[in-house]
Design brief:
This protein is mainly alpha-helical and 307 residues long. 72% of the residues lie in helices and 0% in strands. The protein is globular and about 70 Å long.
């Protein structure tokens, strides 16, 4: 990022591959607004090259690669309807695209379909992702495809079906990529959700310890949400509990706003179950659900999905 920005500040233009990887680097560093602006700049650069008589076949390929970045930005920033619409258009035009790109876009569409409870359609597009990633020879990509396919069953409440698959996937990722790989941490978070729902609390605690370390820097709203849900369900309510609510709030703050609202709902539910009704009311009041106030307007819960 520093190299490219220094060159551009000096009025230098960089090659297409460097320019595209620069925008990917912004995405990896969660500088999504900047990445979106730079994608728009690349679109203008492509249009200029077309007008100047550039190689149309090459420019079309570059345009499709740039679109992959934009769809990923929309997914990470929780603009799922946009990601789904653009992703389906991209998949409809696929031909000689890189298999990793095909798997990436299929996963983005699958995330959106799953979030809107279109589970049959989500499974269909995840089969496209599975087929493509098998050709890409990427442990990282395979880990994501396996994880997102399992998320469909998790949102259906079928935890036992994917529990062992997630643990096996986690073992492979740790072997191939190392304990510090972000995808390993995200997989651990999702596996913790299965463990909690299957009453395997000790296993869930171990998985959360591994997963929460990377939740600040890796994942999407839905994978983070199931991990936070697992953590809240293990929280005893004590100040000295191993589950830190301030840490969970900090993690949620690094994602799109929907995750913070979901975490608030999770905490309200947990506090009610712990018998702490006043604390539950206070938590609910933070996002506009206070039955004691005169304001009966409900908060904007569009897109809210509590696992």
């Amino acid at each position: 990022i520093d190299w490219i920005e220094k060159l551009r500040a000096e009025g230098q233009e960089v090659g297409w591959d460097a320019d595209l990887w620069y925008v990917w680097a912004l995405v990896f560093h969660r500088r999504y607004d900047t990445a979106r602006r730079q994608h728009e700049r690349i679109a203008r650069r492509l249009e200029h090259e077309r007008g100047a008589g550039g190689d149309l076949s090459r420019l079309q390929e570059l345009g499709r690669r740039a679109q992959v970045i934009r769809i990923c930005v929309d997914t990470y920033t929780d603009h799922l309807a946009d990601a789904q619409q653009q992703g389906m258009q991209w998949l409809a035009g696929r031909a000689a695209d890189d298999p990793f790109d095909v798997a990436t876009i299929a996963c983005a569409v699958g995330i959106s379909l799953k979030s809107s409870h279109q589970f049959v359609e989500a499974r269909e597009v995840m089969r496209v992702a599975q087929s493509a990633i098998a050709q890409a020879d990427s442990d990282y990509g395979s880990g994501w495809v396996t994880l997102l396919t399992a998320m469909i069953a998790i949102h259906e409440g079928d935890y036992a079906t994917v529990h062992n698959d997630l643990l096996a996937n986690l073992g492979r990722l740790r072997t191939e990529l190392g304990e510090g790989a972000g995808i390993a941490g995200t997989t651990a978070l999702v596996a913790a959700k299965c463990a909690v729902e299957m009453c395997l609390d000790e296993e869930a605690r171990e998985l959360l310890t591994a997963g929460l370390r990377w939740a600040h820097t890796h994942g999407i709203v839905d994978t983070a949400a199931v991990g936070l849900d697992a953590a809240v369900k293990l929280w005893s309510g004590r100040e000295d509990d191993a589950v830190s609510i301030p840490l969970l709030r900090e993690i949620a703050a690094g994602y799109a706003p929907r995750l913070g609202l979901m975490l608030g709902c999770m905490l309200v539910q947990r506090l009610v179950r712990l018998g702490r009704l006043e604390d539950a009311l206070a938590e609910a009041a933070h996002f506009g659900l206070d039955p004691r106030s005169g304001d009966r307007r409900a908060p904007d819960l569009q897109g809210l999905e509590v696992p």
